[in-house]
Amino acid sequence: MDTLLQHMAGQTVSCSDGTSSTVSNPAASTTGAPVTGQMVLLDMFFPGFSTFSAFVQKNLNIDLNVYIPLVLICGALTFAWQYFSDYCWDLIDRYMMSVVDVRTDDEIYNMLMGWVAAQKFAQGARRFVVNTNLNSRFWWLWRYDYDDEDEDGTEEDDHVQSTKGGKKALAYTPTFGSHWFWYKGRLLCFRRQQSRDMAGYSLSSEREEISIKCFGRDPWILKELLLEAREVYMKRDEAKTLIYRGTTKGSGSEPTWQRCMARTSRPFSTVILNEKVKKELIDDVTDYLNPATRRWYANRGIPYRRGYLLHGPPGTGKSSLSLALAGFFKMRIYIVSLSSIAANEENLASLFSELPRRCVVLLEDIDTAGLTHTREDGKVAAIDGGSDDMVPGQITAGDGTATTPTPSGRLSLSGLLNILDGVASQEGRVLIMTTNHLKKLDKALIRPGRVDMIVEFGRADKEMTAAIFRAIFAPLEGDEVDTPSDADSKDLFKTPSISTSPAGAAAAEARRELARDEATLKVVELADQFADKIPAHEFSPAEIQGFLLKHKRNAAAAVEGAEQWAVDTRKEKMEKDLREARERREKEEKAEAENKGTKKEEKGGKDKTETKKSKKSSKHNKVTSKKSSSKKSTRKAAISDADSSDDSTSSSSSSSSTKSSSSESESESEPERFKEKNSKRKHSKKEKTDITAPPPLLVKEDTIRVQVVPVQQEVQTIANYIAPGTEKTDDLAKAVVVVEDILVPQISVIEVNETRSTGSEDGKDSGYGTP
Ligand SMILES: Nc1ncnc2c1ncn2[C@@H]1O[C@H](COP(=O)(O)OP(=O)(O)OP(=O)(O)O)[C@@H](O)[C@H]1O
After folding, report:
1. Buried b (16+ CB within 10 A) or exposed e, 150-184
2. Closest residue CA from atom 13 of ligand 1
3. Domain locations in the chain?
4. Ligand 1 atom closest to Cα of 272?
5. Ligand 1 atom closest to Cα of 471?
6. Compositionally biased, Basic and acidic residues: which spans (predicted)?
7. Which of 79, 104, 207, 281 could form a disulfide with 195 if both were Cys (CB 3.0 to 4.6 A apart)?
């Protein structure tokens, strides 16, 4: 090759166009130095080498060609060394080192990375990865917001460069590659690399492989390190309640428990509930969690489970108590809302099988659609051929007798019961179920063994209201207390209240203590005044707390605004209820109209001659009066005809009455209809069985008109419409209405100051109220 190139250089080549040219080396022409074939080859691999070599030779008089073999030998040696060392490392790795691979889709990843970020080698790394969240990229291990603690930077996470003011903290971990560090006198290697296996289906941030190596065939040091990492991780959460939520991400993915938060444990004392009930609950759980109790259960073959049912209106503290309980016993809490779409039998079973042995499981909203029907209802439905009426999620018989198949993908009662105490269900957990409607629950769901204790939560009474007030305004440790004594003391000592001398500090502490006591006394006094202004059993603790939080820095202002707030809130709630009732009624009327349309079509040509609407209407009214033989059904018809929301389970008489009213409503406006009916009722006393007038007024007509509207509303809601304080007039009647049976509404006044039912002028009970 060398000779060939030398031979070619300087030769004349004939071209096709008749001209001739001489082959010469360009480098030679520029520098004038002879160019060897070796050079040409080297030029191919290292462009510009010949020029460089010629330059060196010209200026330094060194012929680089002499060193070329040397360079080649060095290259070969390096290559060989690399190969050899890789081979040796491979051997050492395989036979003389211990390695632990850390799964990135497991919680240990979060633990280890938290530990690594705190190590010197990570903080001093020249190439590193910066994170605001050290946790695994896998969604079920992802913890939003880095929990609720780190923002003030008071935690022990020195490695996390947190900044005050709600900014995200930064954490640094070594980048991809091997990083050597010393741990307990042993040299270890932290290795982080990108995984090629998962390239097709995961995000690049998810494609990680983490391992730690140590020399020696005994991996004890690695295990020790992992245990330490876990301990540090757990310690951070020691004073916290870890909250997990059952979740499925996207369709088709496996349900799993996702850690969603670690909240500072709520002290039990902050949940305002009857002290006796609270104590009973704590004693019961304490006894249950005692290892001796576990053995006791096992020896007797009784399933080791305990269930609690918390019921009451929204915002009365059910979830708060569950969280406080979990925090008190240092257990994790696993929450599933049965009203969520994903809460089907399969998902729930899968979630329950993943539960740890000792934990609190909170099943929220067990009064959810599919579980409100009783097992007996299910049977009746089957016998009546009522399967058509079953709604998605309707129960199947819990005793194993199939009624109608539960639509797939929805939770059935029997399914839930199986999950709660079937063979596969976990033992050792504390089950808490919450509901807003105890009466709707199937007895099978709350029988002893499934529910061992039922705790009722109610709207705030006077004592509770005062307690909420105290809880919010009473100064606690760490709170700043401004009192005149503070100012006095400053004058006295002529120094700021924070003194550096021990005597000064003690005096400042004593002053603070005194100020706190004074403030506490004042708060107790204000709490009583506040409680006097809030009507008992009308507002939930959450509502009261919401109002107080608006004045959290000014207790006196809260007391001052209490009355007005109560009036406004009541009005708001009333309007909301009325709006909802109206919407519901409209919806039902629409559905009924559609239904009617379908029926008409079915009747075909029969009704073609009867086209006039008025005739149809009178016919319906006749039917109504015939069917309305009982007083109760007449009342119901009247109420549902007025402004009430229709009861879907109403009898045929009621529905025909509703039909009549709906046909009327097509042509008349609501107030006109009410007026007309009112006058009808007044002038024809005998038409008692055909009352289609609006509900009666329970108070003097000239003071306030009270319409008892929604039959389906909760008792308390109805009572709110006419509760004392609705309007500040002296002659306002006080009344509480009790709806005893929502199918056949029977309203009776149980507390009346001055009441006159305008529905019955002859002094007899109109059927709506008892004066
Ligand atoms: N009995 C109570 N003691 C202390 N705080 C309460 C109480 N009831 C409600 N609260 C406060 O009201 C808010 C809502 O309470 P919580 O979520 O526990 O109510 P809930 O009964 O579970 O409501 P829902 O039925 O809607 O789930 C919380 O901030 C809580 O602090």
Report:
1. bbebeeebebbebeeeeebbebbbbeeeebebebe
2. 542
3. 2-62, 97-236, 256-266+286-456, 463-566
4. 3
5. 4
6. 576-612
7. 207
